[in-house]
Design goal:
By secondary structure, this protein is mainly α. Helix 1 runs antiparallel to helix 2. The protein starts with 12 loop residues before the first helix and ends in a 9-residue tail after the last helix. The model has no long low-confidence stretch (mean pLDDT about 80). Keywords: Membrane, Transmembrane, Transmembrane helix. This is DUF2892 domain-containing protein.
Length: about 60
């Protein structure tokens, strides 16, 4: 990528933070539903989604 190239809207730390929080909330809800209904697949998916949301945070942006 060239020096003057414009970055996409996803590269903004504010957008990344909002999307990461939304993904983490979805993961928490899936985990809670899985725990309360004893559906262990939902609990497992909720844990995975929480981890993905944490990895999407603004701290993961790599500057050139």
């Amino acid at each position: 990528m060239t020096q003057g190239a414009r970055r996409g809207w996803f590269a903004s730390p504010r957008v990344r933070r909002v999307l990461a929080r939304i993904v983490v909330v979805i993961g928490v809800l899936l985990g809670l539903i899985g725990l309360l209904t004893a559906r262990w697949g939902l609990l497992f998916v909720g844990i995975i989604v929480i981890g993905l949301g944490a990895a999407m945070g603004p701290a993961r942006i790599r500057r050139d």
